Amino acid sequence: MNKTLWPIRIVFVALCGAAGGLVCYAIPEWDRLRLFAVIMGLLLGILIVLVDVLLRGFSLRGLSAVTFGLGIGSLIGYLLSVSPLFEQGDPQMIYLARLGLFLTCGYLGTVIALRGKDEFNLVIPYVRFVPHDVHVPLVVVDASALIDGRIVKVCESGFLGAALVIPRFVLNTVQAIADSPEPHRQARGRRGLEVLNELRRIPRLDLRVHESEARPDEVDAKLVFLARSLQARLMTTDYNLAKLAEFQGVPWLNLHALARSLRVELALGQSVEVQLVKAGKEAGQAVGFFDDGSMVVVADALARVGQVVRVEITGLMPAAGGKLAFARLEPERRL
Question: What is the three-class DSSP state of 119?
């Protein structure tokens, strides 16, 4: 973007300088001030470019909020200035009072609109740049879901079917965790940044960064407020945040709940595939793991370690990490 904008800015400054020089041709008395006019034109162009650079983080939502606030403030100022309060008095004092009223109301309207720009979509709907008859469901993602990492697999599978909205303050939170001096927090933060890059590489995934400055100070309150304002669902692995969202009527998606619902329901005699990763405690045994973390012990399969094999479940028992399954190689695969 900057590589495209800077040539435009340079041309604009040059045109401002040329316009300053052309003014001298229109006013003969200024002909001797031509160099001064060119310099003033260049300085004016540079000033405008500096204002443009300073407003780099000013979003379209902020601009619409400022326009709306300025319009409402000016309207209120005008209605007050034509009221009977200003019918009699010194004309000069009335002029100054009306001018001060216009400036004050315009300023207050602009500031109030900027502070509530996240609520602005309730007055003027949030522009999503899609046809108006197409509903695009939104999912607001929090930092815990990014750090968890499973969101990448969910998006790659195509089951989500919604646009992901990542607020700017969530990105700042992940960046702060990645910059932490504590190795454990630093690793979690870097994992979140890696997940962001992986999400950006997923084709056909609608990923949006929301420039939000919601009024609540707590991150959890900001997430719930933003999800409610955008009429979106909230994706998180934080149980407390999920309950807060549920209390305020915001639908939420919990990756832990999704993982539990997708666990393989094993049954005696069932035939499944599993990758054997290491030798078991007993002679000839090999150990593998299912996607949900459940361990399976396969008899007479030591020679198959490192391979994906099809086994038949012969026994089940509960364990802390899920279920512990005992199995044997299918008859045609036994050694």
Answer: coil
Q: Is 174 helix (H, G, I), strand (E, B) or coil?
A: helix
Cα 40 to Cα 21: distance, rounded to the nearest angstrom: 9
Domain definitions of the chain by residue range = 2-115, 138-261, 271-333
Q: How far apart are CA 284 and CA 325, in angstroms?
A: 16
Strands lying side by side in the sheet with 207-210:
207-210, 163-167, 138-141, 233-236, 252-254
* pTM value > 0.70: no
CATH architecture of 138-261: 3-Layer(aba) Sandwich (3.40)
Whether the predicted pLDDT of 240 surpasses 60: yes
Q: What is the DSSP letter of 120?
A: G
CATH superfamily of 271-333: Nucleic acid-binding proteins (2.40.50.140)
Q: Give me the sign of the Cα torsion angle 309, 311, 317, 323.
A: positive
Per the CB < 8 A criterion, the answer to whether 266 and 323 are in contact is yes
**Higher pLDDT among residues 276 and 322, named by residue:** 276
Question: Residues with Cβ < 8 Å from 149, sequence gap 6 or more?
Answer: 191, 195
Task: Check if the beta carbon of residue 223 is closer than 8 Å to that of residue 142.
Answer: yes
The CA distance from 28 to 41, in Å, is 18
59-85 residue pLDDT tens: 666 777 778 888 888 888 888 888 887
Question: CA torsion angle for 246, 247, 249, 255 (degrees, to 10)?
Answer: -10
Q: How many CA atoms lie within 13 A of 122 on its CB side?
A: 10
> In the structure, what pLDDT confidence band is assigned to residue 192 with cuts at 50, 70 and 90?
confident
Tens of pLDDT, residue by residue over 21-46, are 787 777 777 777 778 888 888 888 89
CA 228 to chain CA mean position, Å: 15
Per DSSP bridges, beta strands 138-141 and 233-236 are: parallel
Give the number of other CB atoms < 10 A from CB of residue 278: 12
